[in-house]
Each structure stands twice: as structure tokens, then as C-alpha cells.
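Field reference: "sequence" (input) and "structure" (output). Example, Lysophospholipase:
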Amino acid sequence: MQHRTFWLDSSDSVPLYVNHWRAEGVPGEPARGVLMVAHGMAEHSGRYARFAEALVAAGFDVYAHDQRGHGHTAQHGSLGHYADQDGWARVVGDLSTLNHHIRQQYPQTPIFLLGHSMGSYIATAYLMHHSSSVQGAILSGTSHQPVRAYKAAALVARLERWRQGPTGRSALIDWLSFGAFNKPFEPARTAFDWLSRDTGEVDRYIADPLCGFRCSNQLWLDLLGGLQRIGRIADLKQIDPQLPLLIIAGERDPVSKGQRLQQLADALARSGHARTTLKHYSQARHELLNELNRDEVTRDLIDWLEQALEQPRHRPSFPQESTP
């Protein structure tokens, strides 16, 4: 396997740090497919290396970028902060930039999208405008709630922005979000037990200086505003109803707890989407690719990608560079 990293200029010239994993072989030799990854909040794309190795062995190339305010991309901004203005549109637009770059390198190769947690919401927003640019999409550790719930949470974030400023880091928001996620696992060994049953993976997350940080009040407002824009049936109707979608989560994932995952599948069905597959993993928590049963999850994702390859929808096309 070959692994390289490079910087890719976004539409507003902010450099994005990108990981690219591919099989060793003749330069230009086509892969079966390409997977682009949108990681979650307070982590980075380098954490997907093990998963990428399995994908490469199955014939898929993988691209994963550090999103704005995350990983090495945050060197050109601030860790935990998308942007001072239009942060949501910019992170969604970055997926367009990456997809356009991949399509230039792989003109005829099917491209798939995997979005995890925060990345799943960004991926959903991207699909509303650019479904034709991908062959299928996987949403991991995701959820769906009424728009009013996101509006109520945004009120708290707006008050914290007024109190601390846009780049302030609110202990209250952190407690209401991540603190609440860990409550089902008390007495907890760490503050991040909700991520995985694998204690080694949790410890690696805690030891990683690019993981587990507090995000800015403005990022939370950007995210909650974005969630409102993808939460309505009318919004989801913008996604190609024939686009293959796989929605996965751990049975004990606090992000998708209760009916939130089923509510997403139901919302997609009401929007007219006809090709949604929903899968829970027993006892698993939030980070399925770092869970005790990660090999099972990886096999399932590869199987789904292979099945999607056998059911081509149309010739892949370029997304527009404009942001929603």
C-alpha cells in the first residue's frame, strides 16, 4: 500500500490537508472505486488509516481530508473553529473541492462517500447538491431529530457566543453534548468511554493532541444551523432517490440512541428515497471503525461497496465548485 499526504487549496484558498491511500502498482492503474471520507468532530483523517488499508486491499483507493478546524488543516486557522463566517457552507464546499480533485485523477472511476458523525451531516448536505458526483454514500454514527431540537440547542450556543465571543470554548456546551454522551456508561473509566468498548482505542484518542478538544461557539452555531438545513423532508428530497445509502450505527451509540437512526431512515423514505439500508451493531458504541467488532464492520462496508459497484446509476459527473 502507498500512502501520501498533500495540501489541496479550497475554494477560498484555505489549504486542506489530505491523506491518500492506494495500492502499489503501475502508476495510473485504475482502482475499482474511490472512497472519500469526511471525519467527525474533534478528530482527524489520519485515524482512518487502518480502515483505508483494508479498503486498498479490496481494490479501493481512499482520500480523507482534515476538515476545517481539525487536524493539520487547523494550522491554517484555529483548532475547533471552521471559520469566522459561513463556516457550514465552507466545510460542505470542501467536499466538492476534494471530489473535483479526485475526478481529475480518476475520470471514469466510481466515487463513494463515507461521513462519520459530524462528517455524516456534512456529507448529507453535500449530497443534497451533488448526488450525481458519487456512486453511493455511507453515513456512520449519525442521527435525525426534529428541527425544533436543533433550534433550541442553537439558542444556547448563541448565548454562549454572546457571553464568550465566537471563538470562545463553552464548558456548558461541552457538558450538554459530550458530557451527556458519556452518562450511559457511568461509572466511566474516562470522559470518552462513549466512543468505543475498546479501551486501547479510547486511550489513543485521549493521548492524541488533535482529538478531544472543545470546539468554538461559532462552530457549534454553524453545525446546528447546518443540521436545521438538512433536517426537513423537503431538504432530503434534494438527494437523488436512487442513490444507494447505507446508514450504520452502534446499538449503544449515544449520538444515534433510541429511534434517531430509524427516524433518519423514515425521513429518507418519506422524502421518496428508495435505496436506503439501515444496520445496527449489537452493543457497539460511536466509533464503529475503532470498536471491538471493527473487522466485521469493515467487511460489511466492503461488501456494500462491491454490491453498489454492480448497480451503476449513471456516468459520474463533476460537482460544481460553488457551495450551498
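Residues 2-144+232-309 form a domain with the Rossmann fold fold (CATH 3.40.50.1820).
Confidence is low (pLDDT under 50) at residues 315-324.
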